[in-house]
Write a structure and sequence with these properties.
The chain is of the alpha+beta class. The chain has three helices and seven strands; from the N terminus they run αααβββββββ. The strands form two sheets. The protein has a four-stranded antiparallel sheet. The chain has a three-stranded antiparallel sheet with strand order 1-2-5, with no helix packed on it. The chain is elongated and about 90 Å long.
């Protein structure tokens, strides 16, 4: 049997179809966490979040200071005594690494780095004092 241009075209088509099927199967099995699970419920409550953020802006630029050391993350809140604070460490790449932490009656929050994943994260801080509620978020590279 002689090799013809028809054989070459058929072989190229089969190789291309195999490549496309491989890529489709690879993309179907890839896990992508782009948004939070309760995205729509949080969207409805977004105006409350904006009000909390406006309260934080009124406190000034130094309302929240986040510092990293080799083994811990220190979050300092500079305003009236904090009654309750929630820290949510959000990893856009993988929700399995997300952490929710709660603290009561503290203005210095210390988070041990051994308990969290290293990488790019967003620190979401939600706290209240006797009169108002506040919200602050900052992207952080945890190393």
């Amino acid at each position: 049997m002689k090799w013809t241009i028809g054989h070459t075209i058929t072989l190229a088509f089969i190789a291309f179809a195999t490549f496309i099927l491989f890529m489709v199967s690879k993309m179907i099995n890839t896990k992508v966490d782009l948004v939070e699970k309760d995205y729509y419920a949080k969207e409805i409550k977004f105006q409350n979040q904006i009000n909390k953020y406006q309260n934080t802006i009124q406190l000034g630029d130094s309302a929240v200071i986040i510092q990293q050391t080799d083994d811990k993350i220190i979050i300092q809140i500079h305003n009236n005594p904090v009654q309750h604070a929630n820290v949510f460490i959000y990893y856009p790449a993988n929700e399995e690494y997300d952490k929710k932490l709660s603290f009561n009656n503290t203005q210095n929050i210390i988070i041990d780095k051994n308990n969290i994943h290293k990488g790019r994260a967003k620190i979401k801080l939600d706290w209240n004092d006797t009169a108002n509620e506040y919200y602050f978020e900052k992207e952080l590279l945890i190393n």
